[in-house]
Fold this sequence. Notes:
Layout: H1 18-36, E1 39-40, H2 41-48, H3 52-65, E2 68-75, E3 78-85, E4 91-97, E5 101-108, E6 113-120, H4 127-144, E7 152-159, E8 163-164, E9 169-170, H5 184-191, E10 195-199, H6 200-211, E11 220-225, E12 229-235, E13 238-239, H7 271-274, H8 276-284, H9 293-301, H10 305-329, E14 333-337, H11 345-358, H12 361-366, E15 368-371, H13 378-393
Parallel strand pairs: 4-7, 7-10, 11-14, 14-15
Antiparallel strand pairs: 1-3, 2-3, 4-5, 5-6, 8-9, 11-12, 12-13
Amino acid sequence: MTATPGLAPRGARNPGSQGALRHLNQERLVEFLLANGPSTQAELARGTGLSTATVSNIVRDMAVKGVVTTSPVTSSGRRALLVQLTDTGDIAAGVDFGRRHVRIVLCTLGYEVLAEQALALPLGYDVTEAVADASSLLDRMLADGGHDRESVLSVGIGIPGPIDRRTGTVLQGAILPEWVGVNLRDLENAFRFPVVLDNDANLGALGEVTWGAHRGARNILFVKIGSGIGAGLIINGQTYYGYLGITGELGHTPVVDPGVICRCGNRGCLETVASTTVMIESLGRSGTGPVTTADILRRGLERDPAALRVVGDAGQAIGQAIGSIANVINPELVLIGGPLVGLGEALLEPIRRGIQHNAIPIIAETTTVSVSSLGDRAESLGAAALVIQNALAGAE
Length: 396
């Protein structure tokens, strides 16, 4: 199998461009075809709310790229054009590197998950070794599925740290300092594929609006709570990157004055009072032995008062930071990701209180706060979605 002509493995799009709008409309058509099967252009227009002229133009473009095929049919006594998705054999690979894991997913351009595997990594792992292990795992997954390497359009990779989009380099401030200085070329050499690189919180947000229960949401804030606290922004249907690509550093928002010194050099940052590392330290002072993130989750579900207090204090601080951002961007939806989402309302309720404390009333009242519907799959699926986005965008 070979990559379909006309599908670019990577490329940047201007979120405000006509190309970006066309891509969004392509996604709507693909989603409708996945849900309803082969459809006429008139049915696509009715089902998506797009004009017949817009549908016709997009279908023509997708047909040239090999994403869909068309054939003449008769519908209600009139000539029509039937549109159906093409099984191109092209594959999008999504890779998520976490603090102690790497997760890989393989998908088709029609958003069908072909395979998914995770590999445990030691705490403080060597990045070179971890990337080599991930590359080997990807090769095995392709071989097990009978897929040629040539069928892979590119590999989307999520990193827990800020990335300079000008150079594709992981910057100082990554929760895993071992990643600092790693760049796009390093990863392409290791995987031997074209690579697109992004922050894990950005990919979590993209995964949710592409694959999750909130597909189609256009203004969301995805907050990942872990050893670090990062946020991904979807604004007007597009991932928001700012000037350099360094957005969503929620964990480095000062919330305590003066507060302890954060690893970023400032005092009283959110990460110093609300990360899972701080929660673990707080519960560990009870003298009951070593505490892990899994213990926080278990004890919270058991309604342990100390665990609930630690989670509540952290949640309220996180909510206050979210509230300040909500006043600026007015999201329709705040999604909470990370290892503690299984706590449900025990985590969400204090976050909502914090938002109410800092957001103006109308924004606090109209912003929905929920947990990620994809759990620990959000980032890897978002990485695959980034590849698919770039492929469908073509050379735009």
